[in-house]
Amino acid sequence: MDFARAENTSRRYLDLILEANKRTNLTRITSREEAEILHLEDSWVGLPEINRAPAGRYGDLGSGGGFPGVPIALATGRETVLVDSVKKKMAIVDSALDELGIGEQVSTYRGRIEELALSQPQSFSVLTARALARLGALLELASPLLVKGGVLVCYKAQLSEEELKEARCVESMLGMRLISIREVMLSDGETKRTIVAFEKVGKSLVKLPRRIGAAQRNPLKPQK
Ligand SMILES: C[S@@+](CC[C@H](N)C(=O)[O-])C[C@H]1O[C@@H](n2cnc3c(N)ncnc32)[C@H](O)[C@@H]1O
């Protein structure tokens, strides 16, 4: 799909989500103008890093209303899985995908990321995560899902030195390696994004996934 078509279909998707949002809470953003920037433009900010990943399946972790997953799926044409444990959200996303006729390319997984890692290990070439967890937890959740050479692209609103340091302390233990950090200002002139990309370079030294919720609630500490 060319980018103009991807943009057009993404806008139709956004309309369906904003309409559904009047009945079910999918996103806190209700204005169309704001959503254009914070959902569509923001989703595409990670494209340069995503396009550098090897060919293959793409997954959006903690996808919620389908962002950045759906605009990225449309822009890249990759087979896509949107992962979220809240079944009600995924049911709405599924019906929007069906309405747009893109349900074959883009599917949903209604469950925990940790469960997906058990049933479909090492099956994704690229993953994204926006507003899901701290970087260290994202590395832990993504590592068992990625093929070697696969890339995790994290969308961060605020990235502190401390959060980056925590992630860097556990990256090699999880078989991951930082490859890039890029700061972007969105067109509203006030929303800053930091795109942080990690590559899967080897096996995790820790058995993954740990029990449900552990990555987010009980972060790994570097091994002595
Ligand atoms: C704050 S929302 C962000 C949604 C979307 N990525 C965005 O930026 O608009 C975080 C989502 O992650 C989901 N989530 C959190 N931890 C999860 C896990 N371990 N497995 C699956 N979904 C998870 C939540 O249900 C929620 O919908």
TrEMBL record:
The gene is rsmG. This is Ribosomal RNA small subunit methyltransferase G. PANTHER family: S-ADENOSYL-L-METHIONINE-DEPENDENT METHYLTRANSFERASES SUPERFAMILY PROTEIN. Keywords: Cytoplasm, Methyltransferase, rRNA processing, S-adenosyl-L-methionine, Transferase. It is found in: Cytoplasm. The lineage of its organism: Bacteria, Bacillati, Actinomycetota, Coriobacteriia, Eggerthellales. Transmembrane segments: none annotated. Specifically methylates the N7 position of a guanine in 16S rRNA. GO terms for molecular function: rRNA (guanine-N7-)-methyltransferase activity. Its main location: cytoplasm. GO terms for cellular component: cytosol.
